[in-house]
Amino acid sequence: MFILLPPSETKASGGDGPALDIEALSFPSLNKVRRRNIEDLRVLHPDDALQILGISEKLRSEAEANTRLREAPTVPAIMRYTGVLYDALDVSTLAPSARTRLGVGSALFGLLAADDPVPHYRLSAGTKLPYSGAAVDALPTMKARWGSAVTEALQQVPGTVVDLRSGGYQQLGRLPGAVTVRVESVREDGSRKVVSHFNKHYKGLLARELASADTDLTTPGDVAGVADIARRAGLTVEVNEGLSAKDSLTLVV
């Protein structure tokens, strides 16, 4: 089982690992696009990067960090990302075996295993990043940059893939048959409401339970198996019916 998490805009700074070694990252089939992304991001002047990345002057340090991608210190990817989902995941208390089930979708790197060492960076799925030396109005989307590479890499992952990425990151490379999850709350009148603000929190809790489960899911798209693990952990989940909802769960909170 492989649990694919979304990244976060907020990231831990610094690190104590060696500089980025692309050849050491998981999913080596993505390295060609990774190198191009890194180079195109690295050469952006911070003044231009502020506009392209859609960030304010207060976050200039984020743009400046991108210029040091090749020499900056690294930390394992699962420790680089921060925020609500990662607080709920509480990865520092997970067993090493649980970490091997976790991965992160990334605009810059495509896919990462939990312990892949990466530097601090700023790049989002919705960014239009210019190719080095190209005309300013020629801004390819990250989806266009990745093409089919992320999907093809995910197709090589054995067992069940649980895709907890947000929509923008799923667009960088969907995996047909991956188990997806939506989070809904129950109103007082019994009707349902899609959870937005705390969506990441509940997905973090679910990811933790799946990663820590004492059973593995070796069959692709085992939505019933995912549901069973969640229920044994005390979570309320429903297997969605119908062709449009195939391979999806609703986490009811």
UniProtKB/TrEMBL annotation:
Matches recorded under InterPro entries: YaaA
GO biological process: response to hydroperoxide
Gene Ontology cellular component annotations, sorted alphabetically: cytosol
Protein name: Uncharacterized protein
Organism field: Corynebacterium glyciniphilum AJ 3170
Lineage: Bacteria, Bacillati, Actinomycetota, Actinomycetes, Mycobacteriales
